[in-house]
Task: structure prediction
Amino acid sequence: MARGRTRTVLVTKHDEGDVRRVPDELVVEEPLEIRLDDHLVATTMRTPGHDFELAVGFLHGDGLLGGAPVKTVRYCGTGSAVSTEFNVVSVETGGRAPEPTPRLTTATSSCGLCGSQTLEDLCARLTPLPPSPIDLDVLAKVPARVLSEQPLFNTTGGLHAAAAFDAEGMPVLVREDIGRHNAVDKVVGRLLLDEALPATGLGLFVSGRASFEIVQKAWAAGFATLVAVSAPSALAVDTAAAAGITLVGFAREDRLNIYAG
Result:
């Protein structure tokens, strides 16, 4: 459900000595409670919109579905969706997914689920991906192509984007959110609901840094290439190397650094 994702406020603007009151569009940030088979899993701060994709992608990235197919996704499995302001999403597998252990802290838009899993855990759960090389000149063009498909960022300047792109560097799916990890979950969730995982032959773009949890989500979804506008962390590089992922950072204006792959 697409709801109000921006809010207009009055700000005092100072521009070369000219001071005036003008309207400004700000991105909305609200909590989303994610439930799996009526069990609370986590609460994350997100920009409303594509909430079903976010919930499904989150569960997939953390391995909480356990390979079980998603049967239904709906707002609020405990009562009226209106009463919870569309901030609770229930993902149902008919009890086929393992019972999750709830996270006791709220994931923020800035850090995602930092440290929720170790590299050893991922290596035990996932296998290295087969190589799926994409030309470096193509990868360098991805950020500009995704930017042209970020309407909320162009309005507010306050959102991240994630995108799945093809071997020619063309975005095939773009999602925006105040948290880059949420934007990735929305992309992965859409692909899962479309039965398009693993994402063989596609690359993943993120408009911020490449942290451990971003590489984790890319690995779980089957993206063999990850392009980030900013820097990766050391653990992200180690994880990409273990996964067989080509990890690119500082991809801007036809320039990039290759950290793994």
